[in-house]
Amino acid sequence: MTFRSLLFVPGTRQDRFGKALDAGADAVCIDLEDAVPPAGKGEARASALAFLAQPRSAVVGLRINGVRTLEGLKDLVALAESQARPDFLMIPKVAAPEDLLTAGEVLPGLPLWPVVESAEGLRRAFEICAASGVAGALFGGADLSADLGSTMDWDALLLGRSTLVAACGRSSVASLDVPHLNIADPDDLTASTLQAKALGFTGRSCIHPAQVAAVNAAYTPSPAEIERARRVVEAFDAAGGAAALLDGKLIELPVIRAARRILDRA
Fold it and tell me: How many domains does the chain have?
């Protein structure tokens, strides 16, 4: 379950659910956590479950509240007792693999997306990403920066990003970078998304439909990248799986793996 882009939509804005599906993101995630004030949790929960009980042609997930909170437990119970079935369940504030157990037992078979957004969660990221049912993980940069007392600058969060990417890579699950919080700065959105891609993130989350196109473009291989990847694979195959040279550059297994990832994404 790999997405170039994932668009969050507040659970309080039922009028935006359909519009979010039309924004072009690979996945939409209805948010019952950060985007919903305490007084609106019940209403947002009911709206989300009603929407998720309807037939749909797009990939739609649900971000519940933390499973160590009363609202999170209410979300799980309501979802289990309803006819609604999201395509995946995003769980915030995951600090240990044990935080995923209840969701996995109450909703068996539902792909889980933990949000790693604390120092403790980062410390146990490899265990979290290896837990049963995990399909991918989201880097919660805003909460992590608050936990660490750091800024959200790229350099300040580089260790956190790198750690999560490595944890996801070790378990062969997808990884999404934190949303770009400044909607009015599309140039930095593109630049930082390309940095996240270079670091190894398989996609990025978005908080506004206007961000989707730039994120999709960054994670869509260009015709030149696709052609180069095809030539690499052809040269390797022609050499019978042995190391080969292409345009003066050595081609061996790590290069082949990267080329095949590009072709798979294309």
Answer: 2
